[in-house]
Amino acid sequence: MKKRRIGKKGMALALSAAVLMMSLSGCNKGTSEDSVIRFKMAVADAASSAQAEGARKIAEEVEKATDGRIQIEVLAGGTLGGERDTVELAMLGGVDIVTCANSVLTQWIPEMSILDQAYLFTNENQAHGAVDGPVGELIEREALDKLNLHVIGYMESGFRNVFSKKPITEIGNFRGVKIRTMQNPYHMAAFESFGAIPTAMAASEQFTALQQGTIDACENAVSNCLNNGFYEVTKDITYSNHAFVYIVVSMSDHAWNRIPDDLKPVFMEAVERGYNIERDLLRQANEDATVVLKEKGVEFHELDVESLQKAYQDLAVSKGFHFDPEWQAAIDKAIADNP
User: Fold this and answer.
1) Are 210 and 230 in contact (CB under 8 A)?
2) Which terminus, N or C, of the chain has the lesser number of Cβ atoms within 10 Å?
């Protein structure tokens, strides 16, 4: 093989490059500014939400656990786009970390639609046990395989309840009620089975639609009734607990590979602490919102949830809803392990 000759100019450039590399390696010791790994985290929820605060807690826990070597900047309120938009960006490596409701991922992982069923879980322990255990393993496997994303945690918006203009205290009160839902066939089927008229629309359109009478009700976590001002037009909240929604935290493969192998376990443990804090924050936010909403004249109602469950299950059978056996077995295990 013929050797390439390096002239004086080339040798000078090589020497300069070597000196530069040595100086950079010297600067990277400890937690100098040049050695910090920085990530941007997109959160579609409002900056004041439990989810955004949870994201900030994840950032705090990660920075503390890594002695400042990994820092996360949280951009909440849809600054970088909606949930689907940011997920697609992360798939291409354009955003480092993203959050989205579990239903968003069903567009790429249809098996995840099993989580959209009404009355799937009867308590938080079952819901947590699913994603912290066998169901989470399936989500993480499929997300990496199909989306090139690493699922690193599960925040939540929890159980959803109904905010309405008139009291709903029994299943018969749903008849003819126009209620906004997510574009989700299982959530819509639930309200159809109750006798309501489900209407899918963007979350940003709800308040105006309630004011104008386009819809009579909407549904979400109780704290959202306060945060979004729905209490101004919906003076009744019914504890329907009809669905549980996760906020999945995912990381682009490009960003994941920037984390040194020795830091990955530390990073994941810190993220877990952060999303567990978010779960507690949401629970507290709902409790605090209940107190404030009652002071603002909102009335809370209980109803026979079993009648709602039966109505949904009957309609689900007639519509032929069925799910992947592997995912169904994982759900069944989570429920059995967390009675």
Assistant:
1) yes
2) N
Note the Cα 276 to chain centre separation in Å.
13
Burial 238-266 (b: 16+ CB within 10 A, else e): bebbbbbbbbbbbbbeebbeebeeebeeb
Type of residue numbered 270: A
Residue whose tokens read 């995840």? 112
As given in the structure block, the two tokens for residue 28 are: 């990277």
Take residue 227 and report the two structure tokens written for it. 């945060």
Domain spans of the chain, in order of start: 35-157+245-288, 161-243+295-337
Sheet bearing 149-159, strands edge to edge: 70-75, 37-42, 97-101, 244-252, 149-159
Q: Which residue has the tokens 């395989």?
A: 145
Which residues are CB-contacts of 312 (< 8 A; sequence separation ≥ 6)? Answer: 118, 119, 189, 190, 193, 194, 242
**Tokens 């920085």, residue located:** 38
| Contact criterion met (CB below 8 Å) for 166 and 238 | no
Phi, psi dihedrals of residue 163, rounded to the nearest 5°:
-110, 125
Query: In CATH, what is the architecture of 35-157+245-288?
Result: 3-Layer(aba) Sandwich (3.40)
For residue 54, give the amino acid letter: G
Please check whether residue 135 is in contact with residue 331, taking contact to mean a CB–CB distance below 8 angstroms.
yes
Superfamily of domain 161-243+295-337: Bacterial extracellular solute-binding protein, family 7 (3.40.190.170)
Which tokens sit at 242?
């009809």
